[in-house]
Write a structure and sequence with these properties.
single chain, 217 residues, mainly alpha
Length: 217
């Protein structure tokens, strides 16, 4: 059975979204980040920004592979965090749907099954919202210095709204499973809760880094 750790290994190995694509499409392909030795300025920038989040270690470890791309750009760093978040949520959404289908095929019923079905819906919604936020950050990144003050504010506001709503959906899933008591005894429920807790961390990191995007004077 796959675990939350397995999700992370899969994403780290093969599900990085390219930040160098010219088109800011939410359907951007996932590719491994190019191997590089990031400059110390990028590493220091990442450490400083991650220190402003609630999950500094997770922030640093998940985003370091992107350091050669974001360098010291707040927008590119926030975009990287958004892309990592989308990849994680997509993997969870797929896994939860598989678990629900397996339970239905086996005729499983009860509070845990109902909570898993709810999770399939809420995590899917969370992934959709994260995808919207990542697409907004991609547009902001591609536009670069041509974007005006009002457009930057609008993009930041939209992204914060969608990421906050995504966190609400993630919490709903985790709380629903916790309320059944299944997380303490069921490997399936525990797997989903662990993965969703990780998703909440990544969403929180992305939200915190969006806050640091500078607004033109």
């Amino acid at each position: 059975m796959a675990s939350a750790a397995t999700f992370l290994l899969i994403i780290a190995a093969a599900a990085w979204i390219s930040l160098t694509d010219a088109a800011p499409s939410p359907s951007s392909s996932f590719v491994p980040p190019p191997p590089c030795a990031p400059p110390q300025s990028a590493v220091a920038f990442l450490r400083a920004r991650c220190a402003s989040t609630l999950y500094g270690v997770a922030c640093y470890e998940s985003l370091l592979p992107y350091a050669c791309i974001f360098q010291t750009s707040h927008v590119k760093l926030a975009r990287a965090a958004g892309d990592v978040n989308v990849a994680w949520l997509r993997s969870i959404s797929k896994r939860v749907k598989e678990l629900v289908a397996r339970g239905a095929a086996c005729g499983t019923a009860g509070p845990e099954s109902a909570a898993l079905r709810d999770c399939a819906s809420t995590v899917s919604s969370a992934a959709g919202l994260a995808k919207q936020s990542a697409a907004e950050l991609a547009k902001l990144d591609v536009a670069g210095a041509t974007v005006g003050r009002s457009q930057v504010r609008w993009a930041i506001s939209n992204t914060q709204t969608w990421l906050s709503a995504s966190m609400t959906n993630e919490a709903t899933c985790a709380d629903g499973l916790a309320a059944t008591g299944a997380a303490a005894s069921s490997p399936v429920a525990r797997e989903v809760v662990m993965a969703v807790v990780r998703a909440k961390e990544l969403t929180s990191i992305a939200l915190a880094l969006v806050h640091w995007i500078p607004v033109p004077p």
